[in-house]
Automatic annotation (TrEMBL):
Keywords from the UniProt entry: Methyltransferase, Transferase
Name of the protein described by the UniProt record: Methyltransferase
Source superkingdom: Bacteria
Signal peptide segment: none
CDD domains linked: AdoMet_MTases
Originating species: Microbacterium keratanolyticum
InterPro entries: Methyltransf_25, SAM-dependent_MTases_sf
């Protein structure tokens, strides 16, 4: 659900630049942002919008979403009357979010920022990180830093709610291809897994985006997409190390459903 990310993005044929820090902004720009919006526009739910809405039903204070993207979740919550605020490193994604907020007639401010820029103190009743976005940070130390920042940013009693894909995803290596019809042609996305590191719990894929007009390739973008997969117990332990209590898990966006061997995504709720 997460793609696209990356430390590398370049038009085919040119030399890619490589970012080396995990907290560097993952790409999510140009064709990648176009595809995100085609595939996951505001309101598109995987069951997550319903579950987050349920989990947040008694929340009247400010909800903060880092990595808010095109506003898929942020604007859905704002439309339900919640006070929301987001940050997002990709200017293309922020533009989509601002446009959608205007179209929906809601107040959903979104600023530029990475997880590592979260500096608020006791400001939010809830912090949400849906769609597995925390897995884009592949260094466990940097995830710990993010969780500590989130803990500081929450009001006493506030909650962090976020998703993690099953650890099984680390070994899902089948190639995939998808396409979307657009006004003047077709946009395609193909994914090839390049490497899996069980030691680091990291999977690296190549994402190749292409725009085709009348059967001619007019634009292409190649990215590396790197994800870290977490065990639920290691994440629960890390949350407790960072000061969270009462860590609860919900399987496959079903409120109160336990995690089993078949679960594909876990939503984790941790209280300050
Ligand atoms: C899978 S999208 C999720 C968007 C939105 N939260 C949703 O639920 O649809 C992941 C987002 O994380 C952002 N992102 C990538 N690296 C990040 C980082 N280090 N810190 C904060 N956001 C990051 C991307 O730009 C992208 O918009």
């Amino acid at each position: 659900m997460l793609w696209p990310d990356s430390f590398e993005a370049a038009a085919l044929g040119s030399v890619a630049s490589v970012q080396t820090t995990n907290q560097a902004a993952s790409a999510y720009r140009n064709l990648a942002a176009v595809v995100y919006e085609l595939d996951k526009p505001v309101g598109r739910s995987f069951g997550d919008i319903e579950l987050y809405t349920e989990l947040l039903k008694d929340t009247s204070g400010l909800i903060f979403e880092p990595a808010a993207g095109n506003g898929r979740m942020l604007i859905s919550l704002a439309s339900k009357g919640h006070a929301v605020q987001g940050t997002e490193p990709s200017a293309d994604m922020r533009r989509l979010c601002e446009r959608a907020a205007t179209a929906a007639g809601v107040h959903a401010p979104i600023g530029a920022g990475l997880f590592s820029d979260i500096n608020a103190v006791e400001a939010f009743e809830a912090v949400i990180i849906p769609a597995g976005s925390l897995q884009l940070v592949t260094s466990p130390q940097e995830v710990r830093d993010t969780l500590e920042r989130v803990h500081r940013a929450l009001l006493p009693g506030g909650r962090l709610i976020f998703d993690l894909d099953s650890l099984r995803g680390l070994f899902e290596t089948s190639p995939s291809a998808r396409s979307w019809a657009i006004d003047d042609g077709l946009i395609t996305l193909s994914e090839l897994v390049e490497s899996v590191s069980p030691a680091d719990q990291v999977r690296t894929s190549q994402l190749r985006y292409e725009r085709w007009v009348d059967g001619t390739l007019t634009e292409a973008q190649l990215e590396h997409f790197v994800l870290r997969f977490w065990g639920h117990h290691e994440m629960s332990t890390l949350l407790e190390l960072c000061g969270f209590t009462d860590v609860q898990l919900h399987g496959d966006y079903q409120h109160g459903t336990a995690i089993t061997a078949e679960t594909t995504v876990a939503t984790i709720v941790a209280t300050k």
